[in-house]
Write a structure and sequence with these properties.
The chain is an alpha/beta fold. It has a five-stranded parallel beta sheet with strand order 2-1-3-4-5, with helices on both faces. The protein has three domains: 118 residues, Rossmann fold; 124 residues, no CATH class; 64 residues. α5 links the parallel β4 and β5.
Length: 360
């Protein structure tokens, strides 16, 4: 069961939202002050914190920033803000405070339920604004600028951005890695900052950051082709590593091929499209088996003219039965019932006859 905190100083709105999400199957906690919200969120780590944007005492954005300064909260919970203001400056401030989404008022309740469901299941939802922060610690630490190009030396994909944010990898995180490794491994003698830098560099190296020259010496294609050495066709260790990591069969076969994440994903998409096309061709080319109710030796050929006469007779009878059922035509209810039965039988007969195209 997903958990949600409803934070609103207005008791009526708080109960309305709380009752709504309880009916949707959420475990709901109702809070009426910002202090209660920040303390409870840090203690229970809910899936979603739904917080009102306007408060008579305190700032909702400050409370959001306080909650998101905790790495464990940021990795397990999302904050959704309800606000009358959706101006660009406010959205940027909300993004800086770690808000996952700003939903403007008046609220469409169906939309709100749907969006909260996406956040609770940790689906991708676009942030209020793309911001590049700098200086200090916690949330003020530098983030990847997603506006950079794919081949920039400081590049990172938006979907990986939050994984290596400053604060996501802290001493507790490093200690948990040590616990998972077990007693058979040496202790991790690295700080959280060192681990963060190592992860960032590893991601940059794997997706291609112009680091090939640092990993392997350049290859002269002409010289390799002249002496027949294997280096002309054998990919470098860095290339193989990228292919094996980001997708099976994606390893480049030439040093001249692009090794950016964008190209790798495009190749994977093309491979999937080709596979789907092959599967669909096989399905569409299948011919259904011929099905007959009677064995071949039991089937009797019907004269097309006889079949046409049977159809015409049935249509004439059907029209007659319908005319006889008009109000006032017949006064005998027994006869009228028999006509109704005959009409249904005639209708079934006409539906059972082969279509005219099949007759030919």
């Amino acid at each position: 069961m997903a958990s949600i905190i409803i934070a609103d100083e207005n008791e009526g709105r708080r109960n309305l939202l709380g009752n709504t999400f309880e009916r949707e199957g959420y475990e709901v906690t109702r809070l009426g002050t910002l202090a209660q919200t920040t303390a409870t969120a840090a203690a229970v780590m809910p899936d979603v914190v739904l917080i009102e944007g306007e408060w008579s005492q305190g700032s909702a954005l400050d409370a959001c920033s306080t909650m998101n300064n905790e790495a464990r909260f940021r990795n397990s919970s999302r904050v959704v803000l309800l606000s009358r203001t959706t101006a660009p400056d406010f959205l940027s401030s909300a993004a800086l405070a770690g808000v996952a989404e700003v939903i403007g008022k008046p609220i469409d309740m169906n939309q709100l339920i749907g969006q909260i469901g996406r956040h609770a299941s940790k689906q991708f939802v676009a942030h209020p604004a793309e911001v590049s922060q700098g200086g200090g610690g916690g949330l003020a630490s530098p983030r990847f600028d997603v506006g950079m190009t794919m081949n920039d030396s400081q590049w990172a994909l938006p979907m990986l951005r939050r994984l290596v944010e400053a604060g996501n990898i802290d001493e507790t995180f490093v200690a948990s890695l040590q616990d998972e490794l077990g007693d058979g491994h040496d202790a991790l003698d690295v700080s959280a900052e060192t681990m963060t830098n190592m992860v960032r560099l590893a991601l940059n190296r794997l997706v291609g950051q112009g680091q090939t020259d640092q990993m392997a010496p350049p290859v002269d294609p002409q010289a390799s082709s002249n002496d027949g050495s294997a280096s002309a066709t054998t990919p470098s260790f860095n290339d193989l590593n990228r292919g094996a990591t980001l997708g099976e069969g994606a390893a480049p076969t030439s040093a001249s091929l692009s090794t950016s994440m964008e190209d790798i994903l495009e190749r994977q998409a093309n491979d999937i499209a080709e596979q789907v096309e092959r599967e669909m061709d096989a399905i569409l080319d299948e011919e259904p088996d011929f099905v007959a109710l009677l064995e071949t030796n039991q089937q009797v050929t019907i004269d097309p003219e006889t079949l046409a006469l049977t159809r015409l007779t049935g249509e004439v009878l059907l029209d007659l039965f319908r005319l006889l059922q008009r109000p006032g035509t017949l006064s005998d209810w027994t006869l009228l019932t028999q006509i109704e039965d005959a009409e249904r039988l005639t209708t079934d007969l006409l539906e059972a006859l082969p279509a005219k195209e099949e007759e030919e």
